[in-house]
């Protein structure tokens, strides 16, 4: 009986073969009331669009199983709430690695296991608004997970990383004036040359960087162009959207005409001042929301993403990130909105896998492939049908 009422969305799209030429990945979260089945995401979106890297917020078993044998590179995440336990207990770290990592390698050879490349310790655990909630446990947890990887003989395959929020950096506030005299000198545009790691983190960050360097792990930072844009009254939106004619910031001998280059230099300056200027970097998150605030629209997000992808291919970047993870793959309607309504609208694809706009992920001018024959997870049929009809988005039969 249920199969008669199974909602099916049929789309007339021919499957196209696409290629991805840059180390671009996607954050794939599952905070959705009606998630696509992970296997559908893997075959219908990731593989169909030749997306070869994903960053997960956790180590969801269904998601990991669906990635098995695909060759897609995966970052799994340790939730912030587990950091305290993992700091204090090597045993807990061993069972975390065993349960959430080792087990997915158990198939053995190529084509069978999950290609987990990184374990992310916490999710932005140094966020200023968290205060001391997680910070004291991060290094200990990272070390214990590393020890567990040694025990599991996985250190040659998996590296430990810590995704940092952009607010680990601050700017010497007595000296953030824009040196371009055409901009009012009362404006407070942060200058990359004045950047350094937050003072309250100086011990922790130094320990972290030593730890990462020793393992050969990169330093991971999340960029947040949209909130920077919202907070920077004196920077035009063009500056955030990679518009070639955006008004530049002048910082000594350097000129920045987009936020991305200024952010890269903020990182490089801060790392250099700490003695780790050579460290490799990964951008753990970068994106633009499509709803929930002024200037959060599909059209602007498309401009942002096209500008980003083009820019990532350019030679002008002072330090190329090893990998860049778009935030995010899909909209998630269960994400917390305590930080604003935009939280549920970060996807390049809608919750049901339809591209909101087009961007070249390696396929050139061809369109992105949407998920088709979408067959939602079966738990909430009645509710969903009703909502779909109410939204007038869906054929429900
Ligand atoms: C996918 O991307 C890889 C790496 O860039 C490329 O070698 C491969 O040919 C692409 N495959 C398709 C089907 O586009
Ligand atoms: C982290 O774990 C170690 C080892 O058990 C312990 O000595 C230390 O106090 C813990 N750190 C915090 C902040 O609790
Ligand atoms: C990972 O392992 C821990 C410890 O065994 C377990 O409690 C947890 O549920 C597992 N899954 C995730 C997603 O953390
Ligand atoms: C901040 O700027 C002031 C004025 O230029 C300078 O005296 C001070 O040393 C700077 N502080 C840091 C931490 O760079
Ligand atoms: C700069 O801003 C200050 C304070 O807002 C204002 O008094 C001043 O006239 C402005 N100067 C210019 C050149 O815009
Ligand atoms: C950390 O900051 C304190 C005070 O701001 C300073 O005394 C100390 O030297 C700094 N430590 C490092 C490692 O930079
Ligand atoms: C300041 O910015 C304006 C507008 O982008 C530009 O024309 C001017 O040359 C800049 N001035 C300096 C000193 O860099
Ligand atoms: C951003 O929002 C403001 C206020 O609604 C609007 O004036 C402006 O045109 C928007 N910018 C773009 C690029 O759409
Ligand atoms: C926030 C900020 O610094 N705003 C300034 C932007 O520039 C204008 C003049 O160009 C100033 O009046 C604002 O105070």
Q: Which molecules other than protein and nucleic acid are bound?
A: 2-acetamido-2-deoxy-beta-D-glucopyranose
Output the helix-strand order.
EHEHEHHEHEEEEHEHHEEHEHEH
CATH superfamily: Glycosidases
N/C terminus separation: 12 Å
In CATH, the topology is named: TIM Barrel
**Helix- and strand-based class?**
alpha/beta
* Helix content range: 25-40%
Strand sequence of the main sheet, in spatial order?
A: 5-4-3-2-1-13-12-9-6
Largest sheet: 9 strands, parallel
Alpha-carbon Rg, integer: 22 Å
| Tally of distinct domains | 1
How many alpha or pi helices? Answer: 11
What is the average of the pLDDT values?
86
The dominant shape is: globular
Name of the CATH architecture: Alpha-Beta Barrel
GO molecular function: hydrolase activity, hydrolyzing O-glycosyl compounds
Organism: Asparagus officinalis
Protein name: Glucan endo-1,3-beta-D-glucosidase
Keywords: Glycosidase, Hydrolase, Signal
